[in-house]
Design brief:
Elements (H helix, E strand, L loop, with lengths): L15 H11 L2 H8 L6 H12 L1 E2 L14 E3 L2 E3 L3 E3 L11 H11 L4 E4 L6 H7 L3 E5 L5 H14 L3 E5 L21 H13 L1 H10 L19 H10 L5 H11 L2 E7 L2 H9 L4 E4 L13 H12 L4 E5 L5 H9 L4 E4 L1 H32 L13 E2 L19 H5 L17
Parallel strand pairs: 4-11, 5-6, 6-7, 7-8, 8-9, 9-10, 10-11
Antiparallel strand pairs: 1-12, 2-3
Bound molecules: flavin mononucleotide.
Length: 426
């Protein structure tokens, strides 16, 4: 059919960076800034992305395979490609939020990770994606944690992701957005100037009802769901978990269990000791301690040490299918994506997330084709040119005292100079 609106932009976008640009144009600046996140200098989120650009492919000129298999399993759950949705809180950037993401992941045959700080109840998300993993922080009493886990289990969650790397870092050089506690009259008046310059976003929310800005998955059996800030306050006041605490969580859950946020070899080994099925090599998308090395730099040492005993995934900086291929070549079984799908969600809702997943699939397939492989299982370091000093080997000799000679010895080599590929803050 002829295009009746020739001036209208094609809703399909060809890279994740274009989705990010469209999201930036669609969202109020403060909401966009909450997704950019990062901390202090914003160095680590940028590093997460740039480090992928430092790895180069070694493709073949002929002998390529006509059919290529990208499918895998993640903790026994089938996935059409080695990608899953990483849990991210506060997806109320569009009214459909996490449900739109879950539907897109289901449509493309990949598992969903749902944050306990999400804006949608776990029951709605598991109904939209049969392979939903529920993510929990170490927050509140053990009794409350058991209640939240049991609720997720009853809703049909297929696994638990425990995220314990959060370190409550404060302050960003480019400023932190003011997020309202509730969408009441004073908050609406305060947001009005941003709402006026983003009329499409404002209209969507006016038509669907304003967001209540609560965390429904942290609702106690009696009483209302906490607001995001109440939930954050409880989390800050909860003493951080010991390894014994995480082992307790793992046993209470009983089913498939991933520990997310591992960067050190010694921590990866302890994850095996407490009975985790998988780890994600991750620095929380660079939102924690700034100047933590890029996740992909930490991956090879961790995968070498424990990859034959536990599933090793990676998240942080994945924006392209080629990035997925590189992570697999360096030992990851699969990757989780964060901002990539948030940009898709912002740009075009469920269809935008599907668009991002299609781009990742096409990019991964293109890499597997060029490298002459039949399946993702054949990807290996031999497919890459890895610059000297690329790897960051953290905690490879146990966990010595920070000021000991052993700790000084294991200081990672300075990474090779890099050129910026994508800009975190535009
Ligand atoms: C806005 C935002 C919110 C996040 N919220 C959570 C969360 O609630 N739970 C969690 O485990 N990780 C959370 N993360 C981290 C992601 O799961 C993931 O580790 C990170 O986004 C990966 O980096 P990438 O964004 O470069 O892909 C969040 C990340 C962002 C950007």
């Amino acid at each position: 059919m002829a295009n009746l609106w020739p001036w209208k932009k094609n809703p399909w976008f060809e890279t994740v960076l274009e989705a990010q640009r469209r999201t930036k144009a669609f969202l109020p600046p403060s909401v966009y800034a909450a997704l950019v996140a990062g901390s202090e200098r914003g160095r680590t989120p940028q590093e997460n992305m740039d480090a992928f650009g430092d790895l180069q492919f070694a493709p073949h000129v002929a002998g390529h395979q006509p059919d290529r298999d990208l499918s895998t399993t993640i903790m026994g759950i089938p996935s059409s490609m080695p990608v899953m949705i990483s849990p991210t809180g506060v997806q109320a950037i569009r009214p459909e939020g996490e449900v739109a993401v879950a539907k897109a992941a289901q449509a493309r045959g990949i598992p969903m990770g749902l944050s306990s700080f999400a804006s949608k109840p776990v029951e709605e998300v598991t109904a939209a994606n049969e392979n939903t993993f529920f993510q929990m922080y170490w927050t509140g009493s053990r009794e409350a944690m058991v209640q939240r886990m049991e609720r997720a289990r009853a809703a049909g969650a297929v696994g638990l992701i425990s995220t314990t790397d959060w370190s409550f870092s404060i302050g960003r050089d480019w400023g932190s957005p003011a997020i309202p506690e509730r969408m009441n009259l004073p908050a609406i008046i305060k947001m009005a100037p941003e709402g006026i310059i983003r009329p499409k976003w404002t209209l969507k929310w006016l038509l669907s009802g304003l967001p209540d800005l609560t965390a429904p998955n942290l609702k106690p059996p009696t009483g209302p769901a906490p607001t995001f800030f109440q939930a954050y306050g409880e989390w800050m006041q909860t003493p951080p978990p010991s390894w014994e605490d995480i082992e307790w969580l793992r046993k209470e859950w009983g089913g498939k269990f991933m520990l997310k946020g591992v960067t050190r070899v010694d921590d990866a080994k302890r994850a095996i000791d407490i009975g985790a099925d998988a780890i994600s090599v991750s620095n929380h998308g660079g939102n924690n301690l700034d100047t933590t090395p890029a996740a992909i730099r930490c991956l090879p040492a961790v995968a070498d040490a424990v990859g034959d005993q536990i599933e090793v995934l990676l998240d942080g900086g994945v924006r392209r299918g080629g990035d997925v291929a590189k992570a697999l070549a360096l030992g990851a079984r699969a990757v989780l994506i964060g901002r990539a799908y948030l940009w898709g969600l912002g740009a075009n809702g469920q269809t935008g997330v599907e668009n991002v997943l299609d781009l990742l699939r096409m990019g991964l397939d293109s890499a597997v084709l060029g490298l002459g492989h039949k399946s993702i299982g054949e990807l290996s370091p031999a497919d890459l040119l890895i610059p000297e000093g690329f790897e960051a080997v953290l905690g490879a000799t146990g966990a010595p005292a920070p000021d000991s000679a052993a700790a000084k010895k294991q200081t990672p080599k300075k990474p090779a100079a890099k050129r910026p590929v994508e800009k975190l803050v535009e």
